[in-house]
Design goal:
This protein is an alpha+beta fold. It has one domain: YaeB-like fold (2-Layer Sandwich), CATH 3.30.2310.20. It contains 3 helices and 5 strands, in the order βααββββα. The chain has a 5-stranded mixed β-sheet. Strand 4 and strand 5 form a beta hairpin.
Length: 91
């Protein structure tokens, strides 16, 4: 099992995200629980990013919304960075 590390910027972004999309609260919670258990589950669509976001990974919450993270395998930590629409998190 991995531990989730909430950065202050992620905490703010998550609060804003849930306020704007209350219908996704349950999906968000389920996604975080699944991420904590195993970030490589196929339905999370874990993938590495490139370009200016090289070194960062992302998973999908829905087809429109993403969560960016950094996975530290040696410490079994997942550092949560941002959440939002595809265009918002890949800016």
């Amino acid at each position: 099992m991995y531990s989730l590390v909430w950065t202050s910027s992620f905490t703010r972004a998550a609060g804003k995200f849930i306020k704007q999309h209350p219908e996704l609260r349950e999906k968000f919670t389920i996604t975080l629980n699944d991420l904590e258990r195993d970030p490589f589950q196929p339905h999370l669509r874990y993938h590495h990013l490139s370009g200016k976001l090289q070194g960062v990974q992302a998973i999908s919450i829905t087809s429109n919304y993403r969560l960016t993270l950094t996975l530290v395998i040696s410490d079994k930590e997942i550092i949560l960075l941002d959440i939002g629409s595809h265009d918002e998190v890949y800016r």
